[in-house]
Amino acid sequence: MSAIAANIAKPDRAGSDRDPRGRVEPNLKDLMSLYRPASLLPSWARSIRAHQSGGYLSALKGRGMEYDESRPYQPGDDIRTFDWRVTARTGRPHTKVFREERERPVYVCCDFSPSMFFATQGVFKSVQAARAAALIAWKAQQSGDRVGGLVFSPSAHFELPPERGKPGVIRLLKKLVAAGELTQSQTSETTPGALAKAVSRLKRMAKPGSLIFLLSDFREFDDACESDLARLARHNDLTLLFINDPFEAALPSASARGRVTDGNSDLEIAFGDRELNQRYADNFNSRYERITKLSSGYRMLMSRLTTTDDPLLVLQRLLGLY
Asked: What local confidence, expressed as pLDDT, does residue 19 receive?
């Protein structure tokens, strides 16, 4: 299923039917134009888990604190905040002082593995991921949060530390566009493990209290990835967007033939075999149910986003759960 569908039947709701290229590759102008629609998304700062200085009540997990300075130790200070480096340098005991954060880091992580360059309807999964990521990033900027993330594939890996303001969002959007361009390496690369490596790296990047969005078709979801996501969810708010094309969930039941291509060669497929169709559907449902179980077990938000959905509507329903 890493091949690219040759014939995309339906135009998407964002107007890309007027620009067919925009249905297979993310477009910077398109992603920039999502700034206003992003304001229609629910705020993820509405739920109250911890009071915090600044403009809103945060949904932060963990301490939600950042280092401010070190000062001489005073009786009653928490031993866990002891600053061993300054103590060793000065010869006097010092403790770290923390301040409550006024904004939270938001990580938007997009999978651009070869299987994401696929669709039979609507837009490519890679385009849908880029649009959803742009909406999330703009909402984070509008909320006064810092925007960072990961954009990854088997052949590329971009790490973006959280940054304030529109420059942080634009930096992310440009990486999404670059990663979403159709190149031979992206559509033919078969080295596995990009998702697991990215999640492992994210586990080291994100400090407790971060808000993390992971957008992927999860075709490379494995035990290592599941374990690292569970660890991330213990100290962060994690949201998963499971992106798929309707064709991936179920094959046509009627006898028919279809053609797929990777840009170099074509493959013709016969449909209508009931037993084959059932095995195909079971395989998809097994992966989907495994991710759903992980999400419910670790209080992650999760939603499916198909290639024919309006990402704004899907995100409105999903973020309304915060």
From this structure: 66
